[in-house]
Write the structure tokens for this entry.
Amino acid sequence: MAANCGNERSFEVITERCLAYYNAPAGRKPLEIISEVMDDVNFPMHNFAHHYLVPAVLLTAVCVKEGTPPEIYQKKMAEVAARAKNVLPAFCGLYGACGAAVGCGIFMSVQTGTTPLSRETWGLCNHATAGALEKMADMGGPRCCKRNTFAALAYMKGYLAEKLSVDLEIPNEIKCAYSKFNNECLKEDCPYYDDKKEVAK
């Protein structure tokens, strides 16, 4: 059994939105999945489901780009979800590795079929986590699941373009609409802060 088995609805929201995106007409963007998930009333401000959100969105966006068959995509999504549930809540502060950054490594591992014995792709997975984690660490604490999700996607946009020649349609400028739900928001010290962009749940 996975270490995280509570609050399954948060995980279901991610899976539902990703599947809808995968089956949607062309022209949709990865950040649309993020917004739809984060705006959902069943998805809280801070929650370990963000550890699944990052790899699920990355996987969905890449599979759409590459035309991955449905059966392969769904198998990979199930594996991503299973691994993400093993990344404990509060991993960022208690273990020194944000789960959203680990999610980057989860995605890369599943997408490339990497195992502990892999030679060529083992480093790719660890660099994915390390690079995203460094970007988050440079912003400092306290934790913000939304900020770290945006940071992970922003980092992976460049990383995937360089390493896998995949161009994800993630904007260079990302604005957060969730500040009012976070008592510890860094506000002007957060690169995604925007006091004019807010959502009402």
